Amino acid sequence: MAAHAETEHEHFAGSNKLFISIWGWLLLLTGVEVFLGYQQVSIHLMLVILIGLSIIKAALIVAYFMHLRFERLSLVLTLVPMLVVCICLLMVFFPDSFRSKNLRYQDNPPAPTEDIGP
């Protein structure tokens, strides 16, 4: 009975085959990101694809290399507070970025001035 209690608390360690396949997927996704960087695609589409691929890569890393795939509670307790912090930081910086957008030169940037040496 004691042997059963010990095996009950063992965590999934994974196998070399699993980790190599995850590494292969990460390498493939990175290759797609690099390939996309050399293509003539609209900036908005490229950013959406790059952010999506980065989220997938981050999820693979967190799930398998940080061993959180089988620990749901740890995953929730890790991701939810960080998501709240990120959203709060965005809300802090967005008003300044929108305000400073109107401070930029729209049509006529100032003419460069000449340096007057000593």
Detail the topology: elements first, then pairings.
Layout: H1 2-8, H2 16-37, H3 43-65, H4 72-101
Q: Overview of this structure, please?
A:
The protein is an all-alpha fold. It has 4 helices and no strands. Helix 2 runs antiparallel to helix 3. The mean pLDDT is 81.
Given the C-alpha coordinates, what overall shape results? Answer: elongated
Whole-angstrom Rg: 24 Å
- What percentage of the residues does DSSP assign to strands (E)? under 5%
* Number of DSSP helical runs: 4
Give the beta-strand count.
Answer: 0
Mean pLDDT comes to 81
Could you estimate the helical fraction of the residues in percent? 55-70%
Report the biggest beta sheet as strand number plus sense, adding barrel if it closes. Answer: none
Element pattern in H and E: HHHH
Query: What distance lies between the first and last C-alpha atoms, to the nearest angstrom?
Result: 90 Å
Q: In terms of structural class, how would the helical and strand content be classed?
A: mainly alpha
As residue ranges, the low-confidence spans are none
